[in-house]
Here is the input.
Amino acid sequence: MNALKSLLAAADPVVAPFVCDGLQARIAAQAGFEAVYMTGFGTAASRGLPDVGLLSATEMINAVQFLADSVDVPVICDADTGYGNALNVQRTVRAYERAGASAMHIEDQVWPKRCGFLQGKEVIPLSDMLSKVKAAVDARDEILIIARTDALQPEGWDSVVERVVSFHEAGADLVFVDGIRSRKDLDDYVQNVPGIPKLYNGTLAVPEHANIGLIINPTTMLTLFAEMQRVFKEVREGTAAPLTGSEFVDMTSLLGVPEALAVADRFAME
Here is the structure.
């Protein structure tokens, strides 16, 4: 059974931090998170690219596999627009599931897409997105299908509500309205989309009984970016605080180096 589905059955929302590589995923699991979120923005950024649709399906599927192999907790994944029409979406769903994803979201943006918090987004006709959602549901075995809309910015709440209700009726396990920026946006999300399991992308406190089952939180990704900028600057300037000596040991331990070396020794040729 899909472990994420069991977690979502609990009363409290599942909180999944943004991660973009196996090391971050392991740190998140070590910190006690019950799930992690493979961010498309972060995955593109880890390759030095902006999140404007430059990564291919193959590159994203490879990223899913590395993340899923690195941790035992469920991995929720960005699958952009599904990388094509309904037929492409079915292939994407099967590939993500084989790679180890517990859930994936597809969105209704025009390709090439943009990060959900950028301006100038456009969405495809509802009928086209419904074809993708139905195809995704048809293709999956146990992976959860999350249907995302980016219609809030270009079209407003009337369009958003029509879309997410239709996504839910088409079989999506959760719906996802991206671009929620303010407390009012979040309150409108809760009030305008009642009775449907929802994903929220952000850092605002979620009100009780909001029917938000899953929260993906970008705090870790953005804080890591700011901290890396600070540390690199300090190292360059020679002002970085000295290390304690435990950092390398802690990192190799988290990555399983002692266990890997033990296996190598066990099967070493005499």
Summary: The domain at 3-226 is CATH 3.20.20.60 (TIM Barrel). Residues 60 and 152 are 26 Å apart (CA to CA). The chain has twelve helices and eight strands. The longest strand covers residues 14-19.
